[in-house]
Design goal:
- By secondary structure, the protein is α/β, with parallel strands linked by helices.
- The protein has a single domain, classed as Rossmann fold (3-Layer(aba) Sandwich).
- About 30% of the residues lie in helices and about 20% in strands.
- It is built from eight helices and eight strands.
- The N terminus is likely disordered.
Length: about 290
């Protein structure tokens, strides 16, 4: 394990317990370069507090980005789950957008123990991400909720949203933590991969029928990696339960349509979907 990590990250020091001596990414991840600079949304920090924090977990402190209003307390809490690229600038900006609206937003670095993917090319990221156990991710999100509750967050108004890799996690965490009021999953994988991965024992279609938390799925009609057939399969499984989860599919959008720094960004759909997210949180008590 240490040998694998050290070969991938020779500039980082890994201690004997296998944890990276790292912090959050500055700017955008290498794998997404060059960015679509003319469309990038940059949210300032006027009136909010934003920056990196450390979240205690069962075995180690993990870095996270947080943002919340500068004044007040008992802010509705939203977990923001990263794309496959880690907690880079786009995820940080989403946290600031939530803070401007009165939320405490927290985005933990979900790959902290496995490695820093921000300086890797896309083909180098997958081997790292495949070593991230779902159980670890869910436990770390639990720790983020505890942290938020001790730092002016109102965890009785708890929401979760995530993008791409994090979109899948939204469904799983909503099943894991019934105290979540609402979730919004952006174009996350719904069905098991072939071959299956031992560290990912369940997938959204397999928890859908027993799901209690209402999740809104925001998906793309032209997503090459998540076919509409899998959305239909998820809908059929959800219909067996009582979560009142829903889907909105944007017919002309591609995967990553909310990511303003990527060529896949579709501004009109992204803006409409963001409004739906806020309405969904409000409707179900997460705002």
């Amino acid at each position: 394990m240490l040998e694998d990590l050290n070969s991938l990250f020779p500039e980082k020091k890994v201690n004997r317990r296998g944890f990276m001596a790292t912090s959050l990414c500055t700017g955008f991840a290498l794998a997404v370069q060059p960015i679509n600079a003319q469309e990038v949304i940059t949210t300032d920090t006027n009136g909010i507090v934003a920056g990196e924090v450390k979240i205690p977990t069962k075995d180690v402190e993990i870095p996270a980005y947080h943002a919340m209003p500068a004044k007040g307390k008992n802010f509705p809490t939203v977990l923001v789950v990263q794309e496959i690229f880690g907690v880079h600038e786009h995820i940080k900006d989403i946290c600031r957008r939530f803070a401007k609206l009165g939320f405490l937003a927290i985005a933990p670095e979900m790959y902290f123990r496995q490695g820093d993917v921000s300086k890797l090319q896309m083909n180098q990221i997958f081997p790292v991400v495949q070593k991230v156990p779902d159980a670890q991710v869910l436990s770390d999100l639990d720790a983020a909720v505890v942290w938020a509750g001790k730092n002016k967050g109102n965890t009785r108004k708890l929401g979760i949203t995530g993008f791409c890799w994090g979109g899948r996690i939204v469904w799983l965490y909503a099943a894991h933590n019934p105290k979540v009021k609402a979730g919004v999953a952006w174009y996350g994988r719904l069905v098991p991969p072939t071959p299956r991965l031992d560290l990912q024992p369940k997938h959204p279609t397999e928890i859908a029928a027993s799901l209690k938390v209402p999740v809104l799925g925001l998906y793309a009609g032209k997503d090459g990696g998540i076919p509409l057939a899998s959305v239909d399969q998820m809908k059929a499984e959800l219909a067996k339960g009582k979560s009142k989860s829903e889907f909105v599919v944007y017919p002309e959008a591609q995967h990553g349509f909310h990511a303003d720094y990527r060529p896949s960004y579709k501004k009109d759909d992204a803006q409409e979907a963001w409004k739906r997210l806020l309405s969904w949180f409000k409707k179900h008590g997460a705002a």
